[in-house]
Amino acid sequence: MQAVLLTAFEGPDALAVREVPEPEAREGQVLIDVEWAGVTFPDLLQTRGEYQTRPELPFIPGWEVSGTVRTGTAGFRAGDRVAALPVTGGFARTVAVDVPMVFPLPDNVDTRRGAALPLNYLTAHFALLHRGALRPGEVVLVHGAAGGVGSAACQVAAAYGARVIAVVSTEEKAELARSVGAHEIVAADGFLNEVRALTDGGGVDIVIDPVGGDRFLDSLRTLRHGVGRLLVLGFAGGSIPTLRVNRLLLTNTSVIGVGVAEYWRHDPEAAHSQWHELLPLLKSGRLAPPVSSVFPLEQAAAALRHVGERQALGRTLLKVRA
Ligand SMILES: NC(=O)c1ccc[n+]([C@@H]2O[C@H](COP(=O)([O-])OP(=O)(O)OC[C@H]3O[C@@H](n4cnc5c(N)ncnc54)[C@H](OP(=O)(O)O)[C@@H]3O)[C@@H](O)[C@H]2O)c1
Question: Are residues 107 and 138 in the same domain?
Answer without folding.
Answer: no
